[in-house]
Design brief:
The protein is α/β, with parallel strands linked by helices. 36% of the residues lie in helices and 14% in strands.
Length: 606
């Protein structure tokens, strides 16, 4: 750690202060709630004998004896393990590793519960994708169920991908009096480069290669246990957990199956054990995730060009801790946070290369040195984010941390603040008579940051794909894909739109996308105004747009306008029934209760 931490940047300080002022009432209520829970001491001490006996009936004799009293901490393990998700398959072995490490450190660990974990890669373009966003809140509820038995003094969250990590954290924050650490699995080894994979996808969209060639390319890219290696939502999750101090330093991108990965998993159990109320370093997650940690998360997201899904997830996470984060906070921070990484889809490198050339230690150190991150935060590694300048290593079988890199080993992938790839992270907010939206321009050529063209309106991505296949998408146009918001159909990701729109753009057409749906971290080179709020299903202006209305998307001025008079028009109705099949009928109550995208697209009140 450096001996001196620079003063915090004035804009970072101002946004943090405004966030704290705006959140004063809800944050105070949240802290009072978790303080009341903490005063009760080890919750299992209040359980009746029959209740407690049920809670440790399956334990060994020594663990039963330990949990019979009030002085041995018990750690909950909540896992999103399943075999189908490559990123989660390594988690199968983690509970045994954690239980052994916790026992060695004088505690007990119990597997408290599993949470669902669906793969957006499998459900892309399928009806199941309409359950994806809601799975975040289902995971949060499942996490609460796992922790509801009042048997635990701390918790470890095992999860990696998309909605899973935000759901686990939202659920954990409802038990904010407990210390919590997140335990990742790491990325799979690099396979077919992401740029080559994207090239084959585009050729397939043009009919130049068949399904066999496409499947070969996809299988060469996604080929082993571990997280997909492009910098989408899953890897953005890992980066965020580290910069928020919820991972151990350097844990995010160590590959599965290595001795260092196993050592970091064991150490997470020991560290969270040390932070319980039974020890001298009580660190409840609800206090740890404060306004400074939330601002740090937004800064790091911007600095890395991370997934736009986090304009939903970070808002929802913050609200779970009583903090009123808004898209305007993202916009204010974006003006001063430079882009320091180039990872696919914003560059050729993958997350393994990012990790090799300096990774999180260099990134965090650079941002700290520029005063763009709050150093004075609490982490699972101890007080101060400066600890995250260090990198883990094994000395024999002993896990230690040492000084991280002082410079990037490849400035085409990772740079310091003094020579950024761009002056801002490329995540911008748009406002206008079509509503408010998010756009990610870090992979969009500057000459495409402004598009003004007639609208082509579609009820879902399949309609646009059909029009593309029929050769109907000629000339310049703005594709409006509506009734894709959370109330309409659960706000599925719309990645199937990227290849055809990219093909048209490469042919010289000026194209853009405007949608109340999602595109996440892999939206690519086509300008896309996403998460439009209010959505069409809730009476938003998108429901009144017709083919031929001129739309102006201006990522420079931050505006999204339809240059037509919409007054007197009747709103359109959805053209696709998303109410039944593939489990969708079970989520009707969530579609009815969900809030707007700008408020995190969640079903929980503040």
């Amino acid at each position: 750690m450096t001996a001196h931490t620079p003063a915090i940047h004035p804009v970072i300080a101002d946004v943090t202060a405004r966030l704290a002022e705006r959140s004063a009432e809800t944050r105070s209520a949240y802290l009072a709630k978790i303080a009341a829970a903490a005063k009760e001491g080890p919750a299992r001490s209040a359980l009746g004998c029959a209740n407690l006996a049920h809670g440790f009936a399956a334990c060994g004799v020594s663990d039963k004896l330990a949990l019979s009293g009030d002085v041995t901490p018990n750690v909950a393990i909540v896992s999103a393990y399943n075999d189908m998700l490559s990123a989660h398959q390594p988690l199968e072995a983690y509970p045994a590793i954690i239980k052994a490490a916790v026992a060695e450190a004088g505690g007990v660990a119990q597997f408290a519960g599993g949470v669902p974990a669906m793969c957006d890669g499998v459900t892309q373009g399928r009806p199941g994708m309409e359950l994806s966003l809601f799975s975040r809140d289902v995971i949060a509820m499942a996490t609460a169920v796992a922790l509801s038995h009042e048997m635990f003094d701390a918790a470890l969250m095992l999860g990696v991908c998309d909605k899973i990590v935000p759901g686990l954290l939202i659920g954990a924050l409802s038990f904010g009096h407990l210390p919590v650490a997140f335990v990742p699995a790491g990325p799979m080894p690099s396979g077919l480069p992401n740029k080559d994979k994207a090239r084959v996808r585009q050729k397939f969209a043009e009919g130049k290669v068949g399904r066999t060639e496409l499947l070969q390319a996809e299988s060469a890219a996604y080929h082993a246990p571990g997280t997909c290696t492009f910098y989408g939502t899953a890897n953005s999750n890992q980066m965020l957990m580290e910069v928020m101090g919820l991972h151990l330093p350097g844990a995010s991108f160590e590959q599965p199956g290595t001795p260092l990965r196993e050592a970091l998993t064991a150490e997470a159990g020991r560290r969270v054990l040390a932070h319980t109320a039974l020890g001298d370093d009580y660190t409840p997650v609800g206090e740890q995730v404060d306004e400074r940690a939330i601002v740090n998360a937004v800064v790091a997201l911007l600095a890395t060009g991370g997934s736009t899904n986090h304009t939903l997830h970070l808002v929802a996470i913050a609200r779970a801790a009583g903090i009123q984060l808004t898209w305007d906070d993202f916009a204010s921070l974006s003006e001063v946070v430079p882009l320091l990484t180039r990872m696919y889809p914003n560059g050729a490198a993958d997350v393994n290369r990012f990790h090799e050339v300096g990774g999180m230690a260099y990134l965090i150190g650079s941002l700290l040195d520029a005063g763009l991150l709050h150093e004075d935060v609490r982490t699972v590694a101890g007080q101060g984010l400066g600890r995250y300048r260090e990198t883990p290593r094994l000395e024999g079988s002993t896990l230690t941390w040492g000084d991280g890199p002082k410079e990037s080993a490849d400035t085409t992938v990772l740079r310091g603040v003094e020579e950024p790839f761009a002056a801002d992270g490329g995540l911008r907010m748009l406002s206008g008579n079509l509503g408010r939206a998010v756009i990610k321009v870090s992979a969009v050529a500057p000459e495409r940051h402004v598009v003004e063209a007639p609208a082509r309106v579609f009820g879902d991505q399949a309609e646009l794909q059909a029009a593309f296949s029929a050769g109907e998408l000629t000339g310049d146009f703005v594709a409006v894909v509506r009734f894709q918001g959370p109330r309409a159909n659960g706000m599925p990701e719309l990645h199937k739109l990227t290849p055809p729109l990219a093909v048209l753009q490469d042919r010289g057409q000026k194209v853009a996308l405007v949608t109340d749906g999602r595109m996440s971290g892999a939206s690519g080179k086509v300008p896309a105004a996403i998460h439009v709020s209010p959505e069409a299903e809730a009476g938003g202006a998108l429901a009144f747009v017709r083919d031929g209305d001129v739309i102006r998307l201006d990522a420079v001025a931050g505006t999204l306008e339809v240059l037509a008079d919409l007054s007197g028009r009747e709103p359109a109705q959805p053209t696709v029934d998303s109410s039944a099949g593939t489990g969708r009928e079970l989520f009707a109550a969530l579609r009815g209760a969900v809030g707007p995208a700008e408020a995190g697209a969640g079903v929980f009140g503040v």
